[in-house]
Amino acid sequence: MAKEKVVILGGGGGGAILANLLPQDRFEVTVVDKSEYHVFLPGFLWVAFKGQPKEKFRRPIKSLLKPGVNFVHDEVVGVDLNERTVHLKGGGKLGYDYVVFATGAPLDFDAVPGHRELVERFGDFYSTLENAEKLHRTLASMREGRFVIAIADPIYKCPPGPHKGTFLSYELFKRLGVADKVKVVLAVPYPHVYSSKTIADVIEPELEARGIETHTFFTVDSIDLEKHKIYSLEGEELDFTVAAVVAPHTGPQYKVEPGNVKDDSGYIKIDKYTSQVVGFDDAYAIGDCTNAPTSKSGVTAHLQAEVVAKRLQGFDARYSGRTNCPLITDGKGLFVISDYDHPPIPVRLSGLKRFLEELFVATYWSAIKYPELWDPIFEAYFEASAPEVFLRYGGW
Amino acid sequence: MGEVIKVDAKGMACPGPISALTRAYRKAKNGDIIEIEATDPGFKPDVQAWVKRTGNELLELTEEGGVIRARIKVTAKRA
Amino acid sequence: MPEKLEEVLTGERLAALERTLDLLVKLDEMGVLETVGDVLEPDTLRYLFKYLMHPGLLKVADRLDVILDALGRVDYEAVNKNIDLVNKALKSVPEEAEPVGLGGLLGALRDPDVQRGLGFLVAFLKALGKSLAEEKEPGKA
Q1: Which of A224, A246, A268 marks a domain boundary?
Q2: A271 and A374 housed in the same domain
Q3: pLDDT > 70? residue A129
Q4: What b-and-e string marks burial along A158-176, b requiring 16 or more CB atoms within 10 Å of the CB?
Q5: What CATH number has the domain bearing residue A326?
Q6: In terms of residue numbers, what domain contains B62?
Q7: Judged by CB atoms within 8 Å, which residues 154-193 of A form the interface with B?
Q8: A154, closest residue in chain B (CA to CA)
């Protein structure tokens, strides 16, 4: 029997794991990415706030894929689902039996006036390793003033990311001996300091204990770098000395035919359980590029990759909407655990969870390269810590 | 006369409805009316707090058969 | 990339390699290598982790600091002395104990076993009350 051709668009977390999970005696797998490098996005925090070298969080995609998986270094400019063709910038075309969208959610720095200039001046911890490195230099040279972390759109990847940045920057300023002179400020678009009230109640006292200033209902509308002010959609303003703003995200920028598989915001419309692109049984989408009503996170991409790998092999697998977003403070950590049927469950901050997060980061590359080793571990973990299970135990 | 912007946030869990409202508000102009429907019970206090903070006008807030419906007149957008 | 073996095998690497090889020989002679190879099967791992990742264990592991702190302060000699007593009593409690009213209670008090148990409980309650008082006002009792 001829092998079925699977073309995976994007060699990030979701795409690379899926490529490594597909048995090669049945599938001919090709990964396409415009970058030769796979970047571990949560590493931005480690670079920006701990000053770790950026090389630690970047590896050539080719080196992460199992031998036998093809890698095409080119940019996708169009996908024609009716013709089963992927068009590349270099002029090439790829035909497929199955196509999987895994290209993530690019950031739009032109949506908020003044944002581009802000990032050029200070760097940030959401876009690139270079910008994370720049933010670290900026913060390390701060001796006084206000470091403001704010968000430009309520839907962004890694929901606890800004909160992690808040705690880690406080830790950095403490190490630099300027914690009493540099005020850390966190502004969020939500009614509470975290999108889920359950989690907000856990971290609010922690923020307060560290003297961190917080603002709710603050969605960044524009930035004035000369006046050092951020204006919110809700009509308020914040002064900053240095600021990092999470940019609005967008769906895939390349053309997809038919156009109606993208929603109003440009995300690929999928069945939230099977990851199948609506209206097509030979197209799937995983990770940040979809409209699935769950957090945009690495765990989502990973779990959806496993679902798609199983479905392509003829098994009936479904994604529960499970999230496991880590939120770390300067000493402890927690996971935001939820799924389609359960809002985030009560989870306390603890030393174990802080350690687990450190372990996840340390073993990231191994988890991408050797899913057969890690999947039994993850599977057991996700089963034991499922929201409906932990709710019987009063949370974690 | 402004436009009427309809937002269906039924079935969305917290903070989905308030996020949907924020997104609609970004596109709105003064004089527009945002009509939003949600089923998340947290939406009622949230939308009241939102209106108070932003200084827009809450024309109507009803709850019927588990559906919370808010009509907001946009008046406070920065020119 | 170094191409020659001499470039790869620097002095310190060679020393580390020799020690590793000695260790491998030892592990092989003891059958460890072969056994580890046999055990490393996806299903073995799957069931091992399925067993280990118990929600209760995750919860206990998360509170290990609190639990160890509490366990460290337990008077194990006292526990050891009374554990058989407690075990026996727990085991002999009927699955569904009958409800007892005031009249029944007076009747039960004539049973010498109940009297002994009550004596134990009264002594325990006295000690408990005393330590409660001490906790409230240290040095008083």
Answers
A1: A246
A2: yes
A3: yes
A4: bbbbbbbbbbbbbbbbeee
A5: 3.50.50.60
A6: 1-34+55-79
A7: 154-155, 189-191
A8: B19
A and B make contact (3+ CB pairs below 8 Å): yes
Neighbouring chains to C with at least 3 Cβ pairs closer than 8 Å: A
Residue C1 pLDDT: 57
Whether residue A227 sits in one domain with residue A127: yes
Token reading at A200: 């907000």
Rounded Cα distance, A43 and A55, in Å: 10
State which residues form the domain around A383: 4-106+250-392
**Percentage of chain C surpassing pLDDT 70?**
96
Cα nearest neighbour of C54 on chain A? A384
Residue A229: closest CA among A119, A132, A118: A118
In chain A, % of residues over pLDDT 90:
96
Nearest 5°: the CA angle A169, A170, A175 is 95
Shared domain for A254 and A388, answered yes or no, is yes
| CA gap C30, A281 in Å, rounded | 54
Say if residues B44 and B63 touch (Cβ distance below 8 Å): yes
Q: Tell whether A37 is within 8 A of chain C (Cβ).
A: no
Examine the fold and report which residue of A221, A246, A271 is the final residue of a domain before the chain moves on. A246
Write the residue in B13, B16, B53 that is nearest to A234 by C-beta.
B53
Q: Is the pLDDT of residue C141 over 50?
A: no
- Determine the Cα angle at A197 with ends A251 and A173, to 5°: 80
Q: Indicate whether B16 belongs to any domain.
A: yes
Q: Residue C81: helix, strand or coil by DSSP? A: helix
- The nearest CA of chain A is from the CA of B23 a distance in Å of 7
Q: How many domains does chain B have?
A: 1
pLDDT at A10: 98
The answer to whether A206 and A349 are in contact (CB under 8 A) is: yes
Active site residue B14: yes
Taking the CB of residue A73, how many other CB atoms lie within 10 A of it? 16
Can you read off the two tokens belonging to residue A138? 């900026």
| Phi–psi pair at A96, nearest 5 degrees | -155, 160
A301 with A275: CB under 8 angstroms?
A: no
Domain range annotation of chain C: 12-53, 101-141
Q: Running DSSP on this structure, what letter comes out for residue A80?
A: E
On whether both A187 and A230 belong to a single domain, the answer is: yes
> How far apart are alpha carbons A356 and A352 in whole angstroms?
6
Provide, as residue numbers in chain B, all residues whose Cβ is less than 8 Å from the Cβ of A343: 13-14
Compute the 3-state secondary structure of chain B and give helix, strand, coil in percent, each to the nearest 5. 30, 35, 35
Alpha-carbon distance of A369 to A103, in angstroms, equals: 19
Please give the ipTM for the structure prediction: 0.92
**Same domain for A379 and A363:** yes
Number of domains in chain A: 2
- Which CA distances in Å does B62 have to B14, B48, B55, B70, C104? 18, 12, 19, 7, 59
**Cβ <8 Å between B14 and A197:** yes
Q: Residue A288: which of A277, A304, A276 has the closest Cα?
A: A304
